[in-house]
Amino acid sequence: MHPNIEFMNVIISANNLTKIYGEKETSVTALDNININFNEMQFTAIMGPSGSGKSTLLHCLAGLDRPSSGQIYLKDSDISTLNDKQLTKIRRDSFGFVFQAFNLIPTLTAEENITLPASIAGKKPDMDWVKKVVETVDISDRLTHRPNELSGGQQQRVAAARAMATKPEVIFADEPSGNLDSKSSKELLVFMKSVVEELNQTIIMVTHDPYAASFANRVVMLKDGKIASDLEEPTQEEIISEVTALSDI
Amino acid sequence: MFGFTKRPLFLIAWKNLKTYPVRIFLTTSSIILGVAVIIASNIFSESNKSAFDNLFIGIYEGVDLVVQPIQEDFAQGFSGDGGQGPVSFEVKKIPDEKIQEIQNLPSVKAAWGDVLGYAQYIKFGDRKDCHSLSEECPRETILVQNGFAPTFGAAWDNNPYAAQWSLVEGKPPTNIREVVMDVLTAENHDFAVGDKVTVLAGATPATFTISGIAEFANVGSPGGATFALFDFTTAQKLLDSTGKVDLINVVVENNYDVNEVKEQIASLDSENLNVINAQEAAAEQADSIKQGLDFFNTILNVFAGIAIFVGAFIIQNTFRILLLQRTKELSLLRALGTSKRQIYRLVISESLFMSIVGSGLGIGLGIGLAVAVKEGLQYFEFGLPEGPLVLTTEAALVGLAIGVTVTILSSLLPARKASQVSPMEAIRDSISTPKGKSLFIRLIFGTLISTIGFGMLFGVLFEFLDLPTLSSLQQVGFGAGIIFIGISVITPSITKPFVFIFEKFYNLIFGILGKLATENSKRTPRRTASTASALMIGLTLISLANVITTSFKAQAETLISEVILADYQVSAANVFASPGIPTGLSEELLELDEVTKLSRTRATVVGYNQRPLILGAVDETVFDLVKTDDIEGSREGFLKKDTIGILKQTAEREGLSVGDEVLLTIPEEGEKGFTVSYIFDWTTQPPAEFFVLLENSSFFSDESLDTELYFNVYEKTPELEEKINSIVDGYPGVAIRDEDGLVEEANNQIQLLLNVIYGFLSISIFVALFGITNTLSLSVYERTREIGLMRAIGTYRKQIRRMIFIESSIIAIFGAALGTGLGIFFAWSLIQTLADDGFTVFSVSISQTFLWIGISIIAGVVAAILPAIRASRQNILEAISYE
């Protein structure tokens, strides 16, 4: 048992997580001994100014990057020591991803993109579930289209649907609304919130936008590779004042 | 310090090449190979030419004049082959007395004769399995030969002035039971001084003791031939020269003028003797060998040309790829105010640098290749003369010029395209995949070109178009060439439909990876097509060669079973090495009760209308054993004395018909008249053009050799076969074949030719490999983000690699399928065109076709290894992150 379990519903956690880039004199500490738990069925936003390490934290948690020291637990198992192949399998079967841009393979239709993780795994996707997801994100009429025939908002919703299609344990979102206009942005965030509330998914999202963060149940602020604050169900105003306070220091 | 350079673009071009040496290699790989083959073939032939020059100068070193017999006019045309082959034509020789006569001249210091003829060393292998209880089983006879070189017997000469042969070991032959062997044969076949060896010279083999081993003017043996050197009188006796010599070497006394002596000797017997300077004789002999080497050189150059042609496709493609990867850099230059023209020049100057480096490397590789070929031939015991490798300045310049020209021409289009890059490109973030112009215009244009080609080709086949200046074969050839160009233009437009055919199949086997790979190859149809085109060229030629030879094989098979009515055919085992079949064999065979019918064929060279012709003498039975068709006259007429039968083609050519008189000049007999009684068609390879009945022709001496025997047996049984074989085994150098054996032999010869062609064409496939590697590298580079995303959402490295391999296989199959299709079609057209010349069978070897398609796919996958590894190792975070 690892030492940080406080609630039984912790799904992923970081233990003394440190990430240092570069060698000796030129090295930069992106994450400095971080300890944090993420609970199941929660929508968590990670915020912080540029260079705070928020993206690095997400990449380490999601098995896209390796910590310099410390552990990452997915439920009870340490995934920081896995090799590339094992880690790839975890990403495929247990995680979902929504990136800021270029989320979809341009040669595949929306539907093929959504079922891509299952196809790669050589599994038949759970079609009832996929249908439900597709309806929730409201792209049923766009399934046979290729990405270049979809609007930016539609593309991100397809990406979100893809992230959920395998019923992952955690969905990681890296500035998912970063490239969207405000209307599409709101649609996507509303949808993400509903995914957590109605379909019992877990989302960890990196964003620099307080408005986007206000959709989350929990907002974690990072500064200089350390956790600066941890807010439960904050309002947009609370987030803005916290962000301002952080940048003032 | 800030430097100012007058030629900044030149500097950029130079810096680029210095920074990315791998680019130079990738771009010019095909040119390197092409230039290397040109250079290697040139070095190889030049070196051998100079070596042969030296060799023959060496042979006649010390000799001033060479006295040759004047051959009868009609025999001159045959003197080139040294009197070898199945036709025993009578070469005039010089009687021994002439040597003494010449020697007696006060101006002559020394004169001695040379004797040269056919002699075959024979080795005995293990005893064969046989079921004979009473007799000893015969041992297998092995004909000793170095590669395909001829086998000679000659006289050992003891003169002190010009020793061609010098002993390495042992002593010269002194009696009728001794022989000196050349060092090459001794080394290759493990003979040593003191060994007993059987030699077949003339009709009967005899056993000799090896008294010594000798080398010839510093090489083991000239041209790799085997040499049996006997003492002078033994050589004369064995080599059908009793009391005669083939030529006389003369050394002139110091204080005499060589040319005066030349005339003196000639005046002794100007009707029969021809005197030439030794240097002339050397040059003459060297020239005949050099012509053979020139032919080999031409073939090599043709294949080098093909490699360079394929290379041009690939260079163009690679340039496009490299420039696309540098779009940002070029666009930045544009944004900073560089003109389109300057960008164009930048690219061209880069290609100039690359071409010079590539051609230089090609020349270097060519030298290496030449050394390897020489070593290889040495290894296979060809016994080429020793000598340094010669690279002429001319050859190096030609190689350089070809390399530079092809590279620069291939870079013109990509350079133009690169110069049109928008200055905005630098600011954009994404790596753009080029959007091609409509492929529709290409389709129309290509179809138009192909239609012209098809018109020319079908015009011949269906006889509706006959271009005045071209022969039908040329018209078909040009038509095929134009079709090929047309198809090359069309390929990008048919990439999508082609891939579509495979899509379902690939999706089924490889799942989503198959789908991704097929989609990717459709994405840039131009690039996919031009990469496939490089492979298409090689495969077209390979399948063309394959179908033509397969058809010839099938043709040979049909022909042999149709026209050889005999159960067995007997001939010389190697027509280049042995003069024929001793007459004793036919006599022994006829003694067998089971042999029901036998026919002999003999041949000699005669003069007709001042030209040499082969006159054959046959038994009457030949018409029952070999298929012949009556054209005019009758066999009955042919059986009469002083009549002659003529082949259909010869009769047509000479305008002869039954009843005409022909006057032949027969060696040692003089002129003799015959009446044409029979004109017929000999449906196999005819042994002669004029025929007489053997029993009517007294001028075929009994000592003559038979060239061919055909015979039938009462019933083919294993016991009989054994009996026949044991008789034939008593005559080394003679081979017996039944129908299967004949077919097999014909097939082996065709297959050997095909394998040589395959070997050379493989170079073009090898060059095409580089093209596939380049294309896939670009493909991977363009899809950095896509591959990163796939990795992020859980695609294994292995799966990424597999995806690239599948994509590569699609390109390979596309090129191979198009090439194979075209090759088969061209072969079919060619055979249709040749139908009038007797080629009627069209046959495709399915196994060979699929073998080469398989090889192409494997080649494609091999070419994908590097790009696939690169793709799978791509850093995920770099690929997906945004600054």
Describe the structure.
The complex is a heterodimer of chains A (about 250) and B (about 900). Chain A has a single domain (about 10-250), classed as Rossmann fold (3-Layer(aba) Sandwich), CATH 3.40.50. Helix content of chain A is about 35%, strand content about 25%. Chain A has 9 helices and 10 strands. In chain A, the strands form 2 sheets. In chain A, strands 6-7-8-3-9-10 form a 6-stranded mixed β-sheet, with helices on both faces. A 4-stranded antiparallel β-sheet of chain A has the order 2-1-4-5, covered by helices on one side. Residues about 1-5 of chain A have low confidence and may be disordered. Chain B is an alpha+beta fold and about 900 residues long. In chain B, about 55% of the residues lie in helices and about 20% in strands. Chain B contains 25 helices and 25 strands. In chain B, the strands form 4 sheets. In chain B, strands 16, 17, 18, 19, 20, 21, 22, 23, 24 and 25 form a 10-stranded mixed β-sheet that branches. In chain B, strands 4, 5, 6, 7, 8, 9, 10, 11 and 12 form a 9-stranded mixed β-sheet that branches. In chain B, helix 1 (about 10-20) runs parallel beside helix 10 (about 340-380), helix 8 packs parallel to helix 11 and helix 21 (about 740-780) packs parallel to helix 24 (about 845-870). The longest helix of chain B has about 50 residues, at about 280-325. Mean pLDDT of chain B is about 80; it is low at about 75-90. Classes of the chains: A alpha/beta (about 250), B alpha+beta (about 900). The interface of A and B includes residues 106, 112, 117 and 122 of A.
